[in-house]
């Protein structure tokens, strides 16, 4: 899930009265522990590992007129001991992992509804709560330039929101690749990659509660872009010039570019205190319109979810949720394979940063179902989470299935916000080995400390 507690970068709200000033961002300290093998996702700069792992962050927010700055580095430590692995799954060099990240940092210049800047903060695109197909906080944030709407832009036909980014994706030689079942990739192209992507969301004025959107991303090797001739837009903004079909790009499958795209909708029912959402994506474009119509599931993945709030008492309610994501190949792979999501073939690292998948953390080629029930009373929360994950079922003759149940708790004490999760995972046919069943306990606790407001007015 995005986070079981409020992330510090989300806790800073715009102060319209503050023209200049600064304040300290919350300090947060997260610890997690796995008893048998790696488990956990949507944890940013944390890595897939067994044993104890910690992340700490603190920072400063400053504002001077239209200029805003978040300086919020993160430090990660993981004991990273060796765990049970095989030729098909898992890797650990047994050495402790330590790394300092720029974290949720950014500098931006805003005017009216628009903002331009540079950032290393995580991006979450799409309606999903536990998973997102293309962009989430599963991997460390990456350095990128952005231009976006700071708030919905109003037009006669409704409101629009968008974000356009150009960013640098890197590798981490100390880690296995999540899109290769945590194995090392021999002979890997170690060049950095350039990701150009955008999201466009539209809320029509005639349909209250409906949001429609498009997400598209294209990555290429950075050094190859530098060496290529052409205009600035063709080199650094290809996402705006390249079509959604191959027929206009001779030899598209031989180019060192990989693309992904998704369409999403979110429908909110305020009176029922409910919402439905879905995202449908492709990691391989069709040759023409007929190709899309004849093989709509080719290279496709999707997420569907439902959320419902049930009032219990004054300021207290039950939050019910269901979310399903399918990343494994559809049956048409029998006659025309597209490979698993997050790896199409031209970019050997796939859609990753520091070897972690930028989109869904459910697992490479996995199908994941999440059910949640949480009692909410202000900042106080407690609930249960049930998950079932089929791990890459299309590419293995034996099914590895994880079934887990967990308890979540969050409390507020003075200036502290404390959240915890304990989850038991039963892995049937672990590592796709028949009758190799393993149990794993996953513990996670996060503590945040909020400072008093220090804005000058």
Sheet having the most strands: 18 strands, antiparallel, barrel
Highest-level CATH class:
Mainly Beta
Provide the gyration radius in Å: 22 Å
N-to-C series of helices and strands: HEEEEEEEEEEEEHHHEEHEEEEEEEEE
Textual characterization of the structure:
The structure is a single chain. With 457 residues, this protein is mainly beta. It has one domain (8-449): Beta Barrel (Porin). The chain contains five helices and 23 strands. It has helices at residues 8-11, 222-227, 232-236, 238-241, 289-294; strands at residues 20-34, 51-64, 67-71, 74-78, 97-101, 106-111, 114-119, 144-149, 153-155, 158-169, 193-204, 210-221, 257-269, 274-282, 300-313, 316-326, 352-353, 356-357, 367-377, 380-391, 400-413, 416-428, 438-449. It has an 18-stranded antiparallel barrel. Strands 17-18 form a two-stranded antiparallel ribbon. The longest helix has 6 residues, at 222-227. The chain is globular. The two termini are 37 Å apart.
Which key phrases capture this entry?
single chain, 457 residues, mainly beta, 23 strands
Brief sketch in words of this structure:
This protein is mostly beta strands and 457 residues long. The chain has five helices and 23 strands.
Any chance you could write out the topology, listing elements then pairs?
Elements: H1 8-11, E1 20-34, E2 51-64, E3 67-71, E4 74-78, E5 97-101, E6 106-111, E7 114-119, E8 144-149, E9 153-155, E10 158-169, E11 193-204, E12 210-221, H2 222-227, H3 232-236, H4 238-241, E13 257-269, E14 274-282, H5 289-294, E15 300-313, E16 316-326, E17 352-353, E18 356-357, E19 367-377, E20 380-391, E21 400-413, E22 416-428, E23 438-449
Antiparallel strand pairs: 1-2, 1-23, 2-3, 2-4, 3-6, 4-5, 6-7, 7-8, 8-10, 9-10, 10-11, 11-12, 12-13, 13-14, 14-15, 15-16, 16-19, 17-18, 19-20, 20-21, 21-22, 22-23
């Amino acid at each position: 899930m995005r986070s079981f507690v409020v992330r510090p970068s989300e806790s800073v709200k715009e102060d319209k009265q503050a023209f200049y000033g600064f304040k300290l961002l919350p300090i947060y300290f997260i610890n997690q522990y796995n008893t048998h093998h790696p488990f956990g996702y949507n944890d940013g700069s944390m890595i897939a590992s067994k044993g104890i792992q910690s992340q700490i962050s603190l920072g400063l927010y400053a504002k001077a007129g239209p200029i805003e700055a978040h300086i919020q580095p993160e430090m990660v430590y993981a004991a990273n001991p060796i765990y049970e692995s095989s030729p098909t799954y898992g890797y650990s060099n047994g050495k402790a992992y330590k790394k300092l990240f720029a974290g949720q940092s950014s500098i931006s210049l805003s005017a009216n509804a628009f903002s331009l800047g540079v950032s290393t903060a995580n991006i979450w695109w799409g309606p999903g709560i536990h998973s997102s197909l293309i962009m989430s906080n599963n991997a460390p944030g990456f350095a990128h330039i952005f231009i976006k709407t700071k708030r919905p832009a109003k037009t006669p036909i409704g409101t629009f929101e968008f974000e356009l980014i150009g960013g640098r994706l890197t590798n981490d030689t100390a880690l296995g690749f999540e899109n290769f079942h945590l194995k090392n990739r021999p002979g890997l192209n170690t060049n950095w990659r350039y990701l150009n992507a955008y999201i466009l969301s539209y809320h029509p004025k005639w349909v209250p509660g409906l949001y429609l959107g498009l997400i598209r991303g294209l990555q290429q090797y950075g050094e190859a872009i530098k060496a290529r001739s052409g205009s600035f837009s063709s080199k650094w903004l290809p996402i705006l010039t390249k079509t959604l079909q191959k027929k206009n790009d001779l030899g598209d499958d031989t180019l060192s570019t990989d693309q992904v795209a998704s369409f999403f909708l979110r429908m909110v029912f305020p009176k029922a205190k409910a919402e439905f959402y879905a995202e449908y994506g492709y990691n391989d474009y069709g040759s023409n319109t007929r190709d899309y119509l004849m093989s709509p599931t080719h290279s496709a993945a999707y997420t569907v979810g439902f959320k419902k709030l049930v009032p219990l008492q004054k300021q207290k309610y039950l939050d019910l949720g269901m979310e399903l994501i399918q990343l494994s190949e559809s049956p048409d792979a029998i006659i025309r394979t597209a490979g698993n999501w997050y790896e199409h073939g031209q970019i050997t690292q796939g859609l990753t940063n520091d070897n972690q998948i930028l989109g869904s953390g459910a697992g490479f080629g996995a199908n994941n179902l999440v059910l949640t029930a949480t009692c909410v009373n202000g900042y106080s929360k407690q609930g249960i989470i049930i998950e079932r994950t089929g791990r890459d079922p299309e590419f293995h003759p034996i099914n590895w299935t994880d079934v887990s149940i967990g308890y979540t708790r969050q409390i507020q004490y003075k200036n502290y916000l404390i959240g915890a999760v304990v989850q038991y995972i039963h892995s049937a046919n672990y590592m796709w080995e028949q009758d190799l069943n393993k149990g794993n306990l996953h513990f996670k606790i996060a503590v945040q400390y909020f400072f008093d407001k220090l804005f000058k007015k």
